[in-house]
Amino acid sequence: QEGCAAGSVLLLLLQERGALGFERHYHVTDPFIRRLGLEAELQGHSGCVNCLEWNEKGDLLASGSDDQHTIVWDPLHHKKLLSMHTGHTANIFSVKFLPHSGDRILITGAADSKVHVHDLTVKETVHMFGDHTNRVKRIATAPMWPNTFWSAAEDGLIRQYDLRENSKRSEVLIDLTEYCGQLVEAKCLTVNPQDNNYLAVGASGPFVRLYDIRMIHNHRKSMKQSPSAGVHTFCDRQKPLPDGAAQYYVAGHLPVKLPDYNNRLRVLVATYVTFSPDGTELLVNMGGEQVYLFDLTYKQRPYTFLLPKKCHTSGEVQNGKTSTNGVSNGIHLHSNGFRLPEGRAHVSPQVELPPYLERIKQQANEAFACQLWTQAIQLYSKAVQKAPNNAMLYGNRAAAYMKRKWDGDHYDALRDCLKAISLNPCHLKAHFRLARCLFELKYVAEALECLDDFKGKFPEQAHSSACDALDRDINAALFSKSDNAEDKKGGGPIRLRATGRKDSISEDEMVLRERSYDYKFRYCGHCNTTTDIKEANFFGSNAQYIVSGSDDGSFFIWEKETTNLVRVLQGDESIVNCLQPHPSYCFLATSGIDPVVRLWNPRPESETLNGRVVVDMEGASQANQRRMNADPLEVMLLNMGYRITGLTSGGAGGSDDEDSSEGQVQCRPS
């Protein structure tokens, strides 16, 4: 009988696990995404709704607003369960349920620099923390730390709170001002759901920081025990974080673009960070730029940090023969796992694409010929996902990126060129496009070396019109009076040092930046320049989709693996800031400037066409790209409905095809 009982329990566990696996895999699917529509509007706030938070079960939704109130909703029945004034005197920016509190304890952070802890059962504020000196932008909690939470504020501090202690003070966990100067602002933070010892922080600038909380605590404990420990025992100000306690991530092209963005008063700041459900990926909404996904398991160095070095004369390249030193085009790729084949170069036999992928490639080529660059990119990406070892697809997509010229496109093109070359060392067009990409990314000296290597590998192209044109561009840039000391000379990574004392960058900070890792995927189409609380999130327990708010009042949904935009919905009259997916259903809560919370789910097929669907996704994306690069006057005109011309698509040019000649370089490769 005991054996039967044990068997029954095991069977039940397996059934529950199977049901959970089924739910996780199918609760957000492509048909559901394409039927996603507005279910309800929850009204109760009198100001902008700046933050949303589901409880663990998904039967409660908390919201915080400019009206300094928090509301707890029953979203499944569209009911307001509780509304209370939080005691804050300014806009609420973050709201969190404390884990293991039975949904009784709610934490809020606001623009009054305060963090408040509320007991919902009695509608009272039970703790008020006033240790920050600037706006509190985010609160983070962790199941493994049931009485502990963290805050990020614009005073540059990450503070840690322990509700088991009677003290109404918090302690500094991380002080960004020690590394980046007094002007740095912390904007967002989140804890890894699978390993609560890891905390991700977004702040001013393009770098995202990942910290090991346990290592920091151990370091602080050892400092306390040291006879020379000072007054600040929790955050010693004489000693930096211990080695290995911090790892930085950055989109590889952004440090190079920073001076240009600063000159145009274009601010880069991470407005939201979040981990994937399995804790292996980090998603960042980069204000002033795009949305980026970083792979925390298979990390890679930024390509533009690996500056080229001259090939040794013993490994000369002639007539398509590569050198034997593992270097191609002067780009060292070992750190990226892209080590190019040594020895004689040979054209790798291209595996014939299956008929359905061949059709997709032809459709992409046709879109390219019609100068529909985004459509071409999305079709090539779809094919790349199914045939990740086809050099031609990468080469073609690189050409489309170079034609579109959106922010970050030349860097993605550079990555595709390197991948194409690693798969086929004699991919002529990829070699040439690589030189053009380096030039467009302001790596002028490296572009010249790359072009020289190209001429050595393909001497028949050395005097083509395309080569001559790029050669002229490079030499003009090299001798231009506009070149300055910030231009990279090779031989070391980029170093960004501020000039003023208040925003000076420490040596420790520069080392951490130089050790940064690059992104895996980039998502384009939205605009994030107006508010600094705009979110991007994984949608689906398997993180199949990416969602983000936008300054145009829409929210955008991309396929995670292809990065293709699949849905745009109008979510606000002005700006969508918050998007919080339900923990187990295909159910999404959004908010923004409007004083309402909107709930979205798949609508019945019997319903008429959803009026909130943005049909022209390409047009919306192009408008947002213009908006990101516009000056304030142009943004105002855009908001008033005037059309602004700009960001032209680029000149005509052909993509590669299996039957096309690889012996000629495109005359206009960019």
UniProtKB/TrEMBL annotation:
Tell me the domain of life: Eukaryota
Q: Where are the WD-type repeats located?
A: 42-74, 85-128, 539-568, 569-610
Signal peptide limits: 1-21
Q: Which SUPFAM superfamilies match?
A: TPR-like (SSF48452), WD40 repeat-like (SSF50978)
Q: One GO biological process from the UniProt record?
A: negative regulation of fatty acid biosynthetic process
PROSITE patterns recorded:
WD_REPEATS_2, WD_REPEATS_REGION
| Alphabetical keyword list | Repeat, Signal, WD repeat
Look up the record and report any one GO term of the cellular component aspect.
cytoplasm
Q: Where is this region: Disordered?
A: 649-670
Query: Sorted alphabetically, which PANTHER family does this protein's record hold?
Result: WD AND TETRATRICOPEPTIDE REPEATS PROTEIN 1, WD REPEAT DOMAIN-CONTAINING FAMILY
Its recorded name reads: WDTC1 protein
Natural source organism: Leptocoma aspasia
Lineage per the UniProt record: Eukaryota, Metazoa, Chordata, Craniata, Vertebrata
